[in-house]
Amino acid sequence: MDITFSCPGCGISLEVESEAAGQQFDCPSCHKPIQVPSPASTERAGGPPASAVAPAASSPQPQVPKIEKRISVPVTSNPVESLIQKPNKSLDAVSRDQKPGLRVKTIRHSDCKEVGKDKFDDTVSEFLNRIGDNAVVSITPISYSYVEMATQKLVTDFGVMVVYRA
Ligand SMILES: [Zn+2]
To answer: Cα separation of 97 and 103, whole Å?
Structure first.
């Protein structure tokens, strides 16, 4: 059986004996080196070869999506949610625990007298230390009058009005 093929250099049709398959020789027309194809390769090129190749090509395809699923799944959603939630919680804590604003505390001298003792200075000092000196806005002396129960006389006394931040 002879092998018929075309020279890849000049396209001339050549015919050799089947024993020459795979051998290399110079084209008689263009003198370029050409290799004689094997009889099997010439049969596949001429006829329909697809039936044997198609199942081999389709079988590895299902493995590709499995690999992509393993790589692509997790990680991204959690940090975004936590960034949104943390500012909301801190705003709630501020509005519930502290209502920023000015407060007034009036301390009257007559409310701080006990029998034999005058605790007015102690009471004012204790209050100022409790709110802290950074919270004090102003301290204003006041005077007021009241009827003392024991003597039924009108008595003028004093006190302080403290304006502070809370
Ligand atoms: Zn040639």
So the answer is: 16
Domain boundaries, the chain: 2-49, 102-165
Residue 1: name the closest of 45, 36, 39, 27 by CA.
39
Query: Ligand 1 mean position to 16 CA, how many Å?
Result: 14
Vertex 30: Cα angle to 26 and 36 (nearest 5): 40
* Residue (of 138, 120, 118, 136) closest to 128 by Cα position: 136
The dotted CATH code for 2-49 is 2.20.28
pTM value is: 0.39
2 C-alpha to center of ligand 1: Å? 18
How many whole angstroms from 48 Cα to the centroid of ligand 1? 27
Exposure on the CB side of residue 84, measured as CA atoms within 13 A: 4
pLDDT digits over 113-142, tens only? 877 788 999 999 999 999 998 999 999 999
User: From ligand 1's centre to the CA of 22, what distance in Å?
Assistant: 16
Q: How much distance in Å is there from the Cα of 112 to the middle of ligand 1?
A: 125
